[in-house]
Amino acid sequence: MKLQHYLGGLQGLDPVDFEKRVFVEPWETRIFGIHVAMMALSQHLEEAQKTPTNFKDEWTWASLRKGAEAMNPFDYFKYRYYEKWLGGISGFFIQEGYITENELDEMIELYSKNMENPLPAASNPEIDSQIIHYLRTGDSPYRDIDRVNHFALGQEVKVKNNLVIDHTRLPGYLREKTGIIDLIYDGNFTYFCSTGPDGLGEPMPVYRVRFDPKEIWGELAESNIAVYADLFEAYLDNA
Amino acid sequence: MSKRFYYGNERESYSAARVRALEALLIEKGIIGSETVDKVLDYFETEMGPFNGAKLVARAWVDPEFKARLLADTTAAIAEMDFPTGMAGAEGENMAVVENTEGVHNVIVCTLCSCYPWPVLGLPPYWFKDPTFRARTVREPRAVLKEFGFPLEESTEVRVWDSSAQIRWFVLPERPKGTEGMSEEELAAHITPEAMMGVARVEVKA
Q1: CB pair distance less than 8 Å for A115 and B31
Q2: Which of A33, A36, A225 lies at the smallest CB-CB distance from B141?
Q3: A211-A212-A217 Cα angle (round to 5)
Q4: Domains in chain A with CATH codes
Q5: Is the pTM of this model over 0.80?
Q6: Is B171 in the same domain as B187?
Q7: Chain A residues inside the 8 Å CB shell of B18
Q8: How far is B91 from A135, CA to CA, in rounded Å?
């Protein structure tokens, strides 16, 4: 069980930090840019396969999310958003053998002494245009193929509690709760990868499910609230 | 004692050197180019950002037919606007809008990560990514909104939207009173990412 999957509803926390900036340190912009480049060069994309890059892996949101979900939960709270990205992404490049830990340490040493040291000059317009192409076209999980909906509008459904190995899109606080199908989305939706016994990967319907907070939180619920979640069919059962 | 909760003195300078070192190595190894990261950042300054969402909201406020289309088929309505190419691109492949009215208030959260409609809202602010916001909003949205300076009447229903699958949600906020004479452009200037996620109202100073 991973705390990261059970964040929704966690009690005893502080007031929310209403920080409106997207990046709070200039360095954070760079790791964001690197992540977007990796997504655009992910080798499951046809155009990325034709782009002259030495990136040879798949990199999607699922990769980043798996990394965050695999963290020690105390570290998850300790580190800021982009600190987690930096840790996960540099770890990935070392683990997959693109760079070595020594190379990275030496380079860190070099820049620590002088941050004004320039970056290597090696333009790659084809990579850059693939990045823009990816941002403009995305990577839609929508699949317009025949399907059978197992649940009907207005039907009461019970959320399953499937085993999670490393990744899920089912929030913990909804597990084994009962809700009402509020909307059935058109088409089917895939996921970036198979999540094993958790159930995602193949194209399947997605439902908008409405929950009564009293069903979830009991008397700790606030009044006159409704909670909606988009749930993959693999997460639902008849009530 | 464990060092689990210890941050070194050089927390930020170390991260800054580490990310620069990583970028340098990725360029050296031919994984990305030397302008790649700048290109990404420039794109979010100029093409994908909350300036698009603000125009959408302003249009919906002045044109009820457009509003109906935006609520019914968000992607198609966005395509009608004179926006940069790519509004159904990354993190905008499937978007949907919910409308705030006098009796219903909507707030968007992503309890599992930080799903956000990039083409129209750009990148998520820190509060949206904050584990505390994500943890608390699904159980006590009224308390959270009050902390944000946005207390709601008990009679207003609060709908919380947890973006756990593939749909990226945003909010059509209520048009403030006294703005009847304002142009779309003037209206858009007052519409914030916070209002379009449902944690702030649109404020117009007289």
Answers
A1: no
A2: A225
A3: 105
A4: 3-137 (1.10.472.20), 143-238 (2.30.30.50)
A5: yes
A6: yes
A7: 86, 90, 104, 108
A8: 8
